[in-house]
Write a structure and sequence with these properties.
heterodimer, A: 324 residues, mainly alpha, 12 helices, globular, B: 213 residues, Glycerol-3-phosphate (1)-acyltransferase, seven-stranded mixed beta sheet, 9 helices, 16% strand
């Protein structure tokens, strides 16, 4: 442990990625072995499913690696692009009308870039209020000027929501990388890694638990798989993993446990909210191949992060009284 | 790589960034054979979308139709339709001594594929307008060429009439099964059948907005 502590921040992060990619190689080989044609069909199917899931993790890991390699500018840019793609997917599926055109242009080509520029310059005070305060008004004004009173509130709410989730929420991920703790400079990547790990782990445990346990759905019409018991297990598992990973963060074990629990709870509840939204829009998954979008279903993947990142970021920043 | 190739790649990239330009090959695979694609027409972007949804190898031999008076009026417009898209120019004014379909037939005799918008004009009402007869005459003259219906979805939301900047919204192009002109089929019946084939490709999600038929 002490040898590890003596490494520079960059070396520690590099080591982290070496371990991550090593684990991924092991898991992928295991999946490939399972999917060999000599195996029983059941095992084979499982191997293939695992392989597909792992593909997503691989993409995620490579993206994070690229983000770290390219520094603050690169990671901001990268999440900016993800934000753009997620918002594009969102706007495709919630029906917008002709009168929304200008408001949407503002969202895509002004709000999104400005928000990420604010992140890149670590202007965290303005960054926290830019969308909830200024954009909130500006969008409504532009919509009103467009002169279409039909379903005005509903249409505005849709766009505001999309921006809050896909731009505001997601922009907190690169903000975490740039958050500076005293005696913890340059290790922001660990915070993001910590967040993603605990949220993903909580999600996996919750999914497994809800397929094994007898369950009573909390909101049957919204998500049949969401039960209190499975959710609780997921949150607890994520929290414990957070406590176990405390050494990657500036937190003490107890603090890490609480922060991770908050993040996992926010992420999984956010996902529940997103499935309510999907039901409203009349889709099962944000991007299935037969639908209008035919896209990759990116929004499904990033939704937990969109909700967990801002809650986690502001909890950390407030609790540790961090100044930008 | 020439400047025209670079421009083509740039345009395809922008189309994909803004709209995704997903090609769904429901009724036929993308293949290097001579074809006439015909689709609904709602926006200026329609051609670029179909073009970007095609595999890269097919783009050079698949040509759009462009109105000669408009698309040759400026240097840039002329260059982009001639060099990048390899468009077939047709005159909108009818002169007595000339068959308006002449340039199209020549392109087809050369072995190129064409993309037609048989409505003749952009419609923003949703359901496509009745088809013009050009498709029928081409089908009559070139019975060996496959006629592929295509439905372009969502594009009217990307750039409504009167706006100049496109909003990023995902669009799809669905390609259906080829249709052929039946023995002794009447013009009206064939055009109506072709139109129905295009409308039938509309994804279920957008049907509430556009009533079929």
């Amino acid at each position: 442990m002490s040898a590890l502590r003596n490494l520079s921040a960059d070396q520690q992060v590099a080591l982290l990625f070496v371990i991550l990619f090593g684990l991924l190689v092991l898991a992928s080989s295991a999946a490939a072995l399972l999917a060999l044609p000599e195996r029983r069909p059941a095992l084979q199917a499982r191997g293939e499913r695992l392989g597909r899931e792992l593909q997503v993790v691989w993409v995620g890991a490579v993206v994070f690696w690229a983000a770290w390699l390219s520094g603050p500018v690169g990671s901001t840019l990268l999440f900016g692009v993800i934000s753009f793609l997620a918002l594009r997917e969102y706007v495709t599926l919630v029906k917008t009308r002709r009168g929304d055109h200008r408001a949407l242009l503002l969202a895509f080509f002004a709000v999104l870039p400005i928000q990420y520029v604010l992140v890149a310059y670590r202007n965290f005070d303005l960054f926290s209020v830019f969308i909830p305060v200024y954009v909130f008004l500006a969008l409504a004004v532009i919509s009103a000027v467009a002169g279409d009173p039909e379903r005005f509130l509903e249409r505005n709410a849709k766009i505001q929501w999309g921006i809050m989730v896909c731009v505001y929420g997601l922009s907190h991920a690169p903000a975490l990388v740039l958050l500076d703790f005293a005696q913890h400079q340059g290790r922001g990547a660990f915070l993001l890694f910590f967040l993603v790990m605990v949220v993903a782990f909580g999600k996996i445990v919750q999914t497994k638990a809800s397929s094994r346990l007898r369950r009573r759905p909390v909101a049957r019409l919204i998500d049949r798989d969401f039960s209190l018991r499975a959710w609780g297990l997921g949150v607890a598992a994520g929290g414990l993993l957070g406590a176990a990973l405390y050494w990657t963060t500036p937190f003490r074990p107890g603090q890490a446990l609480v922060m991770a629990t908050i993040a996992v709870a926010a992420g999984s509840l956010g996902e529940l909210v997103m499935s309510a939204l999907k039901r409203d829009a009349g889709v099962r998954s944000w991007g299935n191949t037969s639908s209008v979008t035919g896209a990759v279903g990116l929004l499904d993947r990033v939704a937990p992060l969109c909700f967990a990142a801002p809650v986690f970021f502001h909890s950390v920043r407030w609790y540790f009284q961090l100044k930008p | 790589m020439t400047r025209a190739d670079a421009m083509g790649m740039l345009l395809a990239f922008i189309a994909r960034l803004i709209t995704g330009a997903q090609g769904h090959w429901k009724g036929c695979p993308p293949m290097a054979e001579q074809r006439i694609y015909f689709a609904n027409h709602q926006s200026h972007l329609d051609w670029v979308l179909i073009w970007a949804a095609l595999p890269h190898e097919l783009r050079a031999t698949t040509r759009p139709i462009a109105a000669r008076d408009y698309w040759t009026s400026g240097n840039f417009k002329h260059w982009i339709t001639r060099e990048v898209f390899n468009a077939v120019y047709v005159s909108r004014q009818r002169s007595d001594d000339q068959d308006p379909l002449g340039p199209l037939m020549e392109a087809l005799r050369n072995g190129d594929s064409l993309v037609l918008f048989p409505e003749g004009t952009r419609s923003n009402k949703g359901a496509p307008q009745p088809f013009k007869s050009g498709l029928f005459h081409l089908a009559e003259q070139f019975p060996q060429i496959k006629l592929i219906p295509a439905w372009i979805d969502n594009v009217q939301r990307v750039m409504p009439k009167g706006e100049v900047v496109p909003v990023p919204i995902l669009c799809t192009v669905t390609f259906g099964a080829p249709i052929t002109l039946a023995e002794g089929e009447e013009k009206r019946a064939f055009l109506e059948r072709a139109r129905a084939a295009v409308v039938a490709l509309q994804p279920i999600e957008s049907q509430e907005r556009v009533p079929a038929g």
